[in-house]
């Protein structure tokens, strides 16, 4: 039977739940970081990514509404995170659309739900389900630790390539620069909330499991982008990969 872990042990376990499942391991991310994607491929990413991250404040709003009132700092974090996404300066989705337009697509295409893949729709639906149905602390683990905390490591590999290989301007890639900073802060705060409030064996185990699932969902989503939009133009062999993609 699992035992209650102290915070150091639990932090390590949470990190290990994500390790090996990072979206950096997907062929789409590898192709992006090595400058092998076309602007058209990046446009398809933006058209899908909008429908995953666009409702992020909505996901957090459902968690906020169910977070116990006594967890004041956790509620404040969720509210601040929602504020930053929507009205704390430039709306994050507007920055994403600016990048999308610089890749050759349009605001209308980005916002059209018919342009997201089935796998993107599944990730969005999973996020809503977690936000609405899971224990609020477990939901923070899944959405903030399992998903959001990965963003800085992903974008740190991709953003230099956007400037150096593709020639995007600082204004066009502001979406990525912003999230390297903000999501590092959000991810760490999410860890602290989970470490403090997942104070039973059951809650700790549920948080670990949902972090695994969240990381797997993002990896699956990113791998599907390669399969749906890139594979016909850029086979795995061109990326130095020879293993078949999981179904």
TrEMBL record:
Pfam families: Haem_oxygenas_2. Gene3D superfamilies: Heme oxygenase-like. Keywords: Oxidoreductase. The keyword Oxidoreductase applies. This is Aldehyde dehydrogenase. It comes from Paracraurococcus ruber.
């Amino acid at each position: 039977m699992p035992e209650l872990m102290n915070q150091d042990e639990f932090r390590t376990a949470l990190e290990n739940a994500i390790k090996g499942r990072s979206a950096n391991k997907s062929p789409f991310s590898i192709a992006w970081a090595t400058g092998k994607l076309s602007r058209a491929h990046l446009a398809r990413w933006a058209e899908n990514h909008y429908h995953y991250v666009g409702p992020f404040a909505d996901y957090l709003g459902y968690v906020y509404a169910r977070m116990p009132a006594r967890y004041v700092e956790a509620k404040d974090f969720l509210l601040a995170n929602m504020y930053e996404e929507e009205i704390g300066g430039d709306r994050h989705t507007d920055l994403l659309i600016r990048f999308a337009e610089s890749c050759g697509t349009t605001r209308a295409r980005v916002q059209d739900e018919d342009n997201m893949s089935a796998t993107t729709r599944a990730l969005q639906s999973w996020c809503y389900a977690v936000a609405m149905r899971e224990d609020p602390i477990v939901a923070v683990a899944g959405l903030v630790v399992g998903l959001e905390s990965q963003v800085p490591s992903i974008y740190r590999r991709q953003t230099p390539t956007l400037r150096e290989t593709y020639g995007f301007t600082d204004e066009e890639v502001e979406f990525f620069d912003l999230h390297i900073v903000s999501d590092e802060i959000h991810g760490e705060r999410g860890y602290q909330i989970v470490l403090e409030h997942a104070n039973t064996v059951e809650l700790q185990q549920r948080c670990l499991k949902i972090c695994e699932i969240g990381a797997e969902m993002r990896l699956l989503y990113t791998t599907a982008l390669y399969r749906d939009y890139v594979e016909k133009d850029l086979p795995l062999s061109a990326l130095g990969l020879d293993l078949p993609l999981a179904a």
